[in-house]
């Protein structure tokens, strides 16, 4: 985005956020005013100490909601046969150069469809440079990745297969492998028609499979659907802080708790990023492969984030606001896994973030009490649903096909 437009967007965005917070306060105040001093029957949302929680209705006014149906792109509609094929491909390591690593090696169902590591391990002989985000709910995101580089799930899957630090396989090699697996030839033909299997179709099937991996049984969603007992009092206090004094909802809003925009928080690089030479090789490779100037290549010491996509100076060190659903399954946190726990994340915000020339104007010290911090953590934990376990399917074998 050009600088001027960017500032207009920031100012407009901040304006909207302030209006939303003011509206919230008005609603909350109106509620408080309506609460009689000696209440015969306490309202369901108020707690013993007189605290008045946000109601599901107020939360909806602020733009929070449960997840509904995924909108798949028109050229890649859902079919059960496509999702079933995508499930096999998601678990199939033959879509990596040395047949050792599949999507599921890094996006492991039992690890919240991430890997539990600060920084991903990456393709054999290299290590990855970023933290693995979950693929749960990824079909709801209009952008993928910490710098929002891919705008579609199938394009993201193609990138993962081709990336030198993920699966490192060329599309032609991937296609030749799929064509020597009779079961795949049959399934691709059923789903996409004759002539394949094609690499692009493989990515479409994977995307449709991913669109079936969606949060279930989330306490916050049960609350939004009217069961106010689904959130503890602490989580309710945390939610109110989140939308008011702690200012989190300025960036984390909507049904996925993200504005899908980019911000600089100055998250410090972990030692592993700065001191591991193999990690540095990946980092320098990524920076160069994405076409920055010689000066930037020489000077870069930390992940430039959005800058690698836009090459705009003010985007340096900005990352896409992540979804906050499923945090209970996806530690460690941030683009570089700098924080192991949600408590560490909250302490970081409380300090006013880290150091960055492009530190977001919405980030400043919060002065939270230890109770406030515990309440925010309780609220964030209420956004986590059941684990979604899908066993590795039995993969169809190779056979020579003439
Ligand atoms: C070596 C580990 C690894 C493998 C293999 C891998 N991924 Fe990832 N995945 C990552 C990392 C790390 C990121 C973050 C990359 C970035 O932001 O630059 C990511 C990002 C994603 C995202 C974006 C999620 C979001 O919210 O931003 C999706 C979706 C995804 N991967 C799906 C896949 C699929 C599908 C495959 C298989 C075709 C795959 N991944 C293979 C590690 C891996
Ligand atoms: C200015 C926008 C902004 C505000 C305000 C903000 N965040 Fe964030 N949040 C982000 C961005 C951007 C990231 C990713 C930063 C990175 O990886 O470098 C993030 C990351 C996170 C993460 C890590 C998620 C993950 O999967 O790794 C959590 C948890 C979080 N924020 C919670 C909060 C809470 C709680 C508040 C309020 C105290 C808050 N955020 C305020 C933009 C914001």
What can you see in these coordinates?
It contains 16 helices and 2 strands. It has 402 residues and is mostly helical. It folds into 3 domains: 179 residues, Cytochrome Bc1 Complex, Chain D, domain 2 (Orthogonal Bundle), CATH 1.10.760.10; 131 residues, Cytochrome c-like domain (Cytochrome Bc1 Complex, Chain D, domain 2), CATH 1.10.760; 41 residues, no CATH class. Strands 1-2 form a two-stranded antiparallel sheet. It is globular and about 75 Å long. About 7% of the residues have low confidence. The protein binds heme C (2 copies). One heme C (HEC) binds next to helix 4 and helix 5.
Outline the biggest β-sheet. 2 strands, antiparallel
Count of the separate structural domains: 3
- Side by side, the strands of the main sheet go 1-2
How many DSSP-defined strands?
2
Residue share in β-strands: under 5%
Q: What is the 3D shape?
A: globular
Ligands in the model, by name, code or SMILES, are:
heme C
Counting DSSP H or I runs of 4 or more residues, the number of helices is 16
- What assembly state would you assign to the polypeptide chains in this entry? single chain
- Roughly how many Å is the radius of gyration? 23 Å
Distance from first to last alpha carbon: 51 Å
Give me the strand/helix succession.
HHHHHHHHHHEHHHHEHH
CATH A-level architecture of the largest domain: Orthogonal Bundle
Percentage of residues in helical conformation: 25-40%
CATH top level class name of the largest domain: Mainly Alpha
């Amino acid at each position: 985005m050009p600088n001027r437009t960017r500032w207009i967007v920031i100012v407009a965005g901040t304006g909207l956020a302030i209006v939303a917070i003011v509206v919230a306060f008005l609603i909350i105040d109106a509620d408080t005013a309506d609460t009689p001093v000696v209440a015969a029957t306490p309202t369901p949302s108020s707690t013993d100490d007189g605290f008045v929680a946000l109601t599901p209705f107020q939360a909806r006014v602020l733009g929070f909601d449960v997840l509904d149906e995924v909108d798949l792109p028109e050229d890649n509609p859902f079919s059960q046969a496509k999702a079933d094929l995508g499930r096999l491909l998601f678990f199939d390591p033959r879509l990596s150069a040395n047949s050792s690593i599949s999507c599921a090696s890094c996006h492991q169902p039992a690890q919240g469809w991430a890997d539990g590591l600060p920084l991903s391990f990456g393709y054999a002989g290299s290590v990855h440079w970023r933290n693995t985000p979950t693929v749960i709910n990824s079909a709801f995101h209009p952008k993928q990745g910490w710098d929002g580089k891919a705008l579609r799930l199938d394009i993201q899957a193609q990138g993962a297969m081709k990336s030198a630090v993920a699966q490192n396989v060329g599309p032609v090699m991937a296609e030749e492998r799929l064509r020597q697996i009779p079961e795949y030839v049959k399934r691709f033909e059923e789903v996409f028609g004759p002539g394949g299997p094609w690499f692009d179709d493989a990515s479409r099937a994977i995307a449709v499979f991913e669109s079936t991996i969606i949060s279930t049984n989330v306490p916050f969603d049960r609350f939004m659907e009217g069961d106010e007992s689904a959130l503890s009092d602490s989580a309710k206090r945390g939610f109110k802080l989140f939308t008011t004094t702690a200012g989190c909802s300025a960036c984390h809003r909507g049904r996925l708790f993200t504005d899908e925009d980019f911000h600089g928080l100055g998250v410090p690089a972990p030692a592993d990023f700065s001191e591991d030479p193999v990690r540095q090789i990946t980092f320098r490779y990524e920076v160069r492969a994405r076409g920055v100037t010689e000066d930037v290549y020489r000077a870069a010491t930390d992940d430039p984030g959005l800058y690698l996509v836009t090459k705009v100076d003010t985007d340096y060190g900005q990352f896409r606001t992540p979804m906050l659903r499923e945090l209970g399954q996806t530690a460690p946190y941030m683009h570089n896994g700098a924080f192991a726990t949600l408590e560490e994340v909250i302490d970081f915000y409380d300090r006013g973030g880290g150091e960055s020339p492009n530190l977001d104007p919405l980030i400043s010290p919060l002065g939270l009490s230890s109770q406030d911090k515990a309440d925010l953590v309780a609220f964030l934990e209420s956004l986590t649903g059941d684990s979604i376990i899908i066993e590795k399917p039995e993969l169809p074998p190779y056979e020579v096909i003439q």
